[in-house]
């Protein structure tokens, strides 16, 4: 099973065991529907434990999530550092949208299929998403993830073909 990270538990919030989660999802309302399943991943024991969502709200950079079975601040604090995840499901995506995790590690090529580097990270800037592409022995470069620059995204072959303009590299 493949999982998608929604964020990392930073601490407890309130007295009922609500988790304060540093959010890495822009689909919180959909991911944290009441009654849906999420998983807490503890990298110390490499274990995913399933929980049901009881409540959710978002504020700033954080999600506040109440999970069934985590009922005290001490319970919540014991989950500090755990990743909160869901099962990755492509049916959740609209056409021509991608999970960030699918874009990381993709080879970036020009239209002649010359390798330009590897997607290291997806940066969220106010104007648009931007791919940070790393190159061996050269500085990283940034590609706006918009139609003018992105020619083709082939997730199956881990390749993104871009339109290279003067000054991009």
Helix and strand layout, with pairings?
Layout: E1 3-13, E2 18-23, H1 28-31, E3 37-42, E4 47-59, E5 62-67, H2 73-77, E6 83-87, H3 100-103, E7 107-109, E8 115-124, E9 129-135, E10 138-144, E11 150-154, E12 159-162
Parallel strand pairs: 7-12
Antiparallel strand pairs: 1-2, 1-6, 2-5, 3-4, 3-6, 4-5, 7-8, 8-9, 9-10, 11-12
Give a short overview:
This protein is mainly beta. It contains three helices and twelve strands.
Describe this structure in words.
With 169 residues, the protein is mainly beta. The protein folds into 2 domains: 3-89, Elongation Factor Tu (Ef-tu), domain 3, CATH 2.40.30.60; 100-162, SH3 type barrels. Helix content is 8%, strand content 49%. It contains 3 helices and 12 strands; from the N terminus they run E-E-H-E-E-E-H-E-H-E-E-E-E-E-E. The strands form 2 sheets. The chain has a 6-stranded antiparallel β-barrel with strand order 1-2-5-4-3-6. A 6-stranded mixed beta sheet has the order 10-9-8-7-12-11, with no helix packed on it. The N and C termini lie far apart (37 Å). The mean pLDDT is 92.
Give the helix proportion (percent range): under 10%
- Strand order across the largest sheet: 1-2-5-4-3-6
Give the number of DSSP strands: 12
Radius of gyration: 19 Å
The fold-level CATH name of the largest domain is Elongation Factor Tu (Ef-tu), domain 3
Regions with pLDDT < 50 over 5+ consecutive residues? none
Number of domains: 2
Tell me the strand percentage band: over 45%
Topology order in helix (H) and strand (E) letters: EEHEEEHEHEEEEEE
- Which CATH architecture of the largest domain would you pick? Beta Barrel
> By CATH's scheme, which homologous superfamily of the largest domain applies?
RimM
Number of helices: 3
Q: What is the approximate shape? A: elongated
In angstroms, what separates the terminal alpha carbons? 37 Å
Please outline the major beta sheet.
6 strands, antiparallel, barrel
Mean pLDDT: 92
Structural class: mainly beta
């Amino acid at each position: 099973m493949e999982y998608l990270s929604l964020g990392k538990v930073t601490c407890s919030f309130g007295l009922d065991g609500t988790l304060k989660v540093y959010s890495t999802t822009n689909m919180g309302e959909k991911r944290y529907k009441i009654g849906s399943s999420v998983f807490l991943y503890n990298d110390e024991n490499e274990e995913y434990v399933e929980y049901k969502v009881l409540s959710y709200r978002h504020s700033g950079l954080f999600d506040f999530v109440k999970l069934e079975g985590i009922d005290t601040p001490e319970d919540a604090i014991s989950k500090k550092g755990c990743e909160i995840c869901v099962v990755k499901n492509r049916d959740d995506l609209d056409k021509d949208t991608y999970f960030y995790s699918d874009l990381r590690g993709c080879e970036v090529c020009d239209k002649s299929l010359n390798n330009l580097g590897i997607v290291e990270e997806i940066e969220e800037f106010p104007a648009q998403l931007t791919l940070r592409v790393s190159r061996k022995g050269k500085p990283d470069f940034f590609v706006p993830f918009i139609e003018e620059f992105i020619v083709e995204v082939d997730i199956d072959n881990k390749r993104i073909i871009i339109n290279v303009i003067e000054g991009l590299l």
